[in-house]
Amino acid sequence: MDALTVSPGGVLEVRNVRKGRSLYTSRLVKGGEIIIDEAPLLLLVAPEMAQSTCIACLRAVRPKERIECSVCFQACFCSPSCQLVAQGTPWLHSVPLCSAYKQLAALGLSTDDQAQLRYLLHALALRHAGTPESERRFAALCSLVGEPTEAEHAVAGRLAPYLKAILAGLNAVESFSLSGEELAMLLRKEQLNSYGVLASQQQVAAAAALQIGISGVCGSGGGTTCGGGVSAGCSSNNGGAEMTPGEGEDGERRLRGSALYAQASLVNHECLPNVARFDFFDSSRSNSTHVTFRALHDLPPGTELAQSYVPLHWSLAERQAQCRDVYGFDCTCPRCQTESQWNDDEGEDDDESEWETDTSDEDLETDDAAVAAAGEAATEQSRDAGDPGPCGDQEVEMQDAQPIVRAPPGEEGPLEPTYLRLFLLKYMCAAPGCFGTAAPVKPGSTLLECNVCGRTRSEREFLRELERSQQQQLQLQLQLQQKKSTTRPRSVR
Ligand SMILES: [Zn+2]
Ligand SMILES: [Zn+2]
Ligand SMILES: [Zn+2]
Ligand SMILES: [Zn+2]
């Protein structure tokens, strides 16, 4: 097990484990503590959001401050300083990339193809910029997990002629060439490691007003859509609002772009995470492009960091399908084991809204002391705690039969069902339709903040909601009993 300290202060170390590289705590981490704070390797704007997303910092640009690229008309900047930075940085929007964008737009390709080609162009720009910084970034990009599959080879083969044509237009075919194998490798790295960044509400509204057919919808994997990703999951932290940021009227999550981070991509998946990812693209802070991860609860030394690549409210079948089909592994996490043991009337079904109202069944006790104790237990168990996930609603093929999930030898077994329910109630955002993950605002705080909508919830509010959900549950059970007794023939007894 080789350990490599990757964060200042020795908070984290990389270990090689059965499922690949993974990050572990090397000391006690307090709930609410920021354990990763990292600058991106690459930021990519979704082509359909190019007129409202700054190409340098991914900020949602207001019409008043918007500066359009007057050469390609395929990019915009949120400020003169971002314009200067973008035009002066080879992998942002320097002259060759600007010309490439212009040529790409003229090809009339689908937004998905454009997004993938833009990514490849940025990767090529990194590779050939020839500065120590670009070399560092390209090496980090290549060291991300992901070996190309047939699917990426096919995409690479299909996109290569377009790439060649664009590079020929720049007179750069010679110096910028990449083999099909390298293209497939780069596509796979992007697919497995990029984060989808949700559009702001204004962007969604503007897109709807323009009647743009947006294909940058979360969850479909690849390109600038979210759902690629060892570290995937989309996130946006735009502050509380009625509609979840990035969500269109149809309830689908819109993406403004995607981002690649080296260290964050080492955080593996579990369906009950212990860290939550926060981003700040629209904030006024100086490091607005940094991604941060906060611990949901205390993590003892030697704890593997875990985030959820899928929204926390997804059913077992949906999560299993997504992990297998998009990320290429079978999830055998403790939550999946627990839920696979449930039979249909015990709880889990394939209803997405399950965790909205059906937050508990047989297991929750009703007296306050038990609730408080259970809530405490949920915070203390140093296992999972939920991260970001909210990739939005997604069509996943349902399986008829409940999959049976067992732990591989030497790994953790199933969870207590009560713990699982309380965990989700506590760490999944209570705002309707949000399903973000909530983490303490700072170490020692009991105020939890959602990583998608930014809402906060105090311990008191949590306990109130817990009580309400139990009452709902009781009422449901009562109704069910009444229904049974009215339909049952009286002569039975
Ligand atoms: Zn900007
Ligand atoms: Zn341009
Ligand atoms: Zn799982
Ligand atoms: Zn939320």
From TrEMBL:
Q: Name one Pfam family in it.
A: SET
Composition bias (Acidic residues) maps to: 342-368
* Annotated stretches, region: Disordered: 338-395
Q: From the UniProt record, list the coiled-coil ranges.
A: none
Q: Which residues form the SET domain?
A: 10-310
Q: Which CDD domains match?
A: SET_SMYD
Q: What InterPro entries does this protein map onto?
A: ASHR2-like (IPR044238), SET_dom (IPR001214), SET_dom_sf (IPR046341)
Q: Which PROSITE patterns match?
A: SET
Q: What is this protein called?
A: SET domain-containing protein
Provide the species name: Volvox africanus
